Amino acid sequence: MLWFGGFSGKTGPPRVPVGVRNLWPTVPGGGWLHGGWPTHEVRTKRTGRRSLAVLGPCGMTSDELARLAVHGVPDDVAWRWPGSYTVVAADDDGRTTIWTDVGGACPIYTLTVDGGVYWSSSSRALAGLTGNHIDPDWLAAWLAARGVSPLVDGRSAFTNVAALPAGHRVSVSANGTVDAQRVWWPRPRHADHVARLRHELTAAVALRVDVAESPTADLSGGYDSTSLVLLAAERLHPGRAVTGVTLHPDGITTGGDASYARLAGRMPGIDHQWLPLGAEHRPFGELDRVPVTDEPAPSALGYASFRAQLEWLRERRASDCHMTGDGGDALICTPALFLADLVRTRRYGRALADVMRWARLARRSVFPLLGAAVRTARTTRTDALDTVLTSLAEFGSQAAIGDVAWFPAASPPSWATDGLRERVAALASSAINAGRSTDGDDWPDFTTQHMASVMATTGRTARADVELAAWSGVPLHNPFLDSRLIDVCLSVPLADRRGPAEYKPLMRAAFDDLFPEPLKRRVSKGDMTPDYYQGLRANLAAVTDMADGRLAELRLASPAVLRRIIPLAAAGVPAAYGALETAISAEVWLRAIDTAPAVPWEAAKSIREAA
Predict the structure, then answer these.
(1) How is 475-496 classified by DSSP, letter by letter?
(2) Contacts for 438 with CB less than 8 Å, ≥ 6 apart
(3) By CB neighbour count within 10 A (0-12 exposed, 13-18 middle, 19+ buried), where does 589 fall?
(4) Which helix (H) or strand (E) is 539 found in, with range?
(5) Has residue 474 got a pLDDT over 60?
(6) What angle in degrees, to the nearest 10, is found between the helix axes of 483-490 and 446-471?
(7) According to the model, what pLDDT value does residue 367 have?
(8) Which DSSP string do the residues of 295-363 spell out, in sequence order?
(9) Predicted model pTM
């Protein structure tokens, strides 16, 4: 597993994870690496009394790194170059400065213990220092209000392990203080947004395939994965090819997403491979085999097919870089909150027109949506948490598709206990009090502030899938979570944005010359929900056994209610399935935490130098 970390304090670190090696040979224990890091993802430089490291895929050259080491690190370092990376500077006086990536794709955590501050890219690694205890408040918010990020700002899934915010400069002093300052805000820019998107995504793909011996990528038939495959093919052709992998039900390679994937797969430079999935690969299978991660992984319930794909990539293609389109939807699609921004900025004619289009798409009445846009235009992000507090008392209330709001409905699922609701309500109250003084500072509009928060959460969550892939020996990359690309997409001014009813118009325009004509006319994504219903029915007994599990022990879920809704979910009742999915994902993760040994630590004197 690839982690990095270090210690900041008045003395050297008392402990380090077993098996790590020094990041900087001249700063023992000030930084360490765990696992077999690719050489191109670890850049270090030592100048005077400062050591500098750039960790992760980054387009920075050696000369540029040397200049930073000599002249200092500017605050735009995290998004100045293509890639998804973290920059760390360590001074000989014990101070460490960390620039976190904009997209949260490489989350950084801290733990204050042993007379200083440990920092690491793995929260679970740090938790090994203090007993590996789950934070029940974080888990309660994840279960009942996953889309309400302010509830868990600064928290990780483990007790006493703090999460650093994305897009910040964080100073960790020798006396143990941690000071985080936001250094990134997307600035509205009037430019050729189509050309900028194409340029930055091209650079993100090139950064990865140029150093890969056997690059592979998902080819699902959607805009996001298709753009990555086509850009990789354009970069590699004619000397090399990228392997585009399309998963499909065994015996079915036509219709729906498969048809769009087939069209793209015919392009030069693409080795299109079809990977059939049988009954043994259905969702909810192999849940007892899901490896441990820092938090519940998005692919956990579909792990059987995910593992099959990873093993195929490793064994048949020796993939050393597999790209997915994760994060593309959150980055490219305009959220419904944009309608409130139009009202707030008095663009009333456009607001009405876009609300009408959105109402048709969401199959909703125009006037309730328009009313929601007007109400939301008069609130701030922190004000919206008051609504979250109210909804926490209402079992089963769900936001309708297309609602214009800062956050989705945070209604506790039917199996939630009083303890779960009380924990989340307390978090909401605390977040409201903490957010009053800074709400909206320096953000150009509601839409940008909302999307930045969503991208940071999306990146951190996607990291769990990267960990799953690493357990199978496949390096997983998500270029849509790169800091520079996020900065470009979020710097589109409000007046230049298209409404939420339009399906990725910026992406369609950016790849007009590469996308096959039928793909350019696509206005939606494929639906995998029926597969999950079938998988649940096929694995009903195993899922039912999970009702009396760790969530029940933590007094966050009622096992009796879970047992009651499981057969309803298997029968295809949407509300029951929605309530069950979150519980089972959490249960799978908790069981993996219990099964896997805690990350072991040892005396720092045993640390080795980095190769």
Answers:
(1) -EE-GGG-HHHHHHHHTS-GGG
(2) none
(3) buried
(4) none
(5) yes
(6) 160
(7) 93
(8) S--TTSTTHHHHHHHHHHHHHHH--SEEE--TTHHHHHSPPTTHHHHHHHTT-HHHHHHHHHHHHHHHT
(9) 0.95
